[in-house]
Amino acid sequence: MASVALVTSAVAADAPVGELLRQWRQRRRLSQLDLAGEAGVSARHLSFVETGRARPSREMVLHLAEQLEIPLGARNELLAAAGFAPVYRRRDLGDPDMTAVRTALDLVLTAYEPFPALVVDRSWHLVSANRALSGLLDGAAPHLLEPPVNVLRLSLHPDGLAPRILNLPEWRRHVLHRLGREAHLSGDLGLAALHRELLALPGGMDRTPPNGIAVPLRLRSGDEVLSFLSTVTTFGTAVDLTAAELSVEAFLPADEVTAAALRRAG
Questions:
Q1: What sequence ranges are listed for the domain HTH cro/C1-type (predicted)?
Q2: CA contacts within 13 A on the Cβ side of 168
Q3: Domain 96-265 architecture
Q4: Calpha distance 26→78 (Å, rounded)
């Protein structure tokens, strides 16, 4: 993953800020006129910025990045390409300044018990989990549980949870569609590589239109079948790179049988 990050940074450093903004605008499927209207700037000025005929101010770079919903790390790359210092810091989760973030994560994870919940970073590496998660990992190969644990790989790998997922083709479609969309919208080369890797794993893909309000995860656990619906919680106003890239994935019971089984186990 480190090499991917280096390649991404090198590409960003070599590209002019206007070219990077154009790439992000096209990734969001917006015309210059669309973006200019949303940002409250003239289409002519935006065109000049993208072609390098005008040098954007620091405030303009951040304003356009906000309109384009560009990830914070990529906003730093835009600023560097425009000749400005980065704005967003990346602090280790163990940093004293991150105490409030750690406390919030612990509170959320504990609140979900006896239902499984975990914290992942933007690359889908496991950061933390509550006690209920361990019951879902029975039978997973040790090599998939060695840090850094990638939870999507663990979910879809034939040595992981895949043999116990009763609706694997449907679950694969859900996971891979979500991952592919994240890779496209973020421009993250690591996520794109992970998507290609998981797409090549066996398990099939359900091509029928989704039925219902959400895709359940139906997992065999001993003699029982547990059915989950997943929810995601993020730090919506985070200005620290680490906090902004964390999310809490919770697996809530989709039926009373699952709820009762988890309460007994908890």
A1: 21-75
A2: 18
A3: 2-Layer Sandwich (3.30)
A4: 15
Instruction: Check residue 46 and give its pLDDT.
Output: 97
Number of residues that make up the chain = 266
DSSP 157: S
Give 134's contacts (C-beta < 8 A, 6+ positions apart): none
Distance CA 169, CA 173 (A): 6
* Residue at token pair 């700037």: 41
Nearest-angstrom CA–CA distance, 58 and 215:
42
Cβ atoms 116, 130 nearer than 8 A:
yes
| Residue given tokens 């065999």 in the structure block | 220
Averaged confidence pLDDT in the chain: 92
Specify the pairing of strand 117-120 against strand 126-129. antiparallel
pTM: 0.85
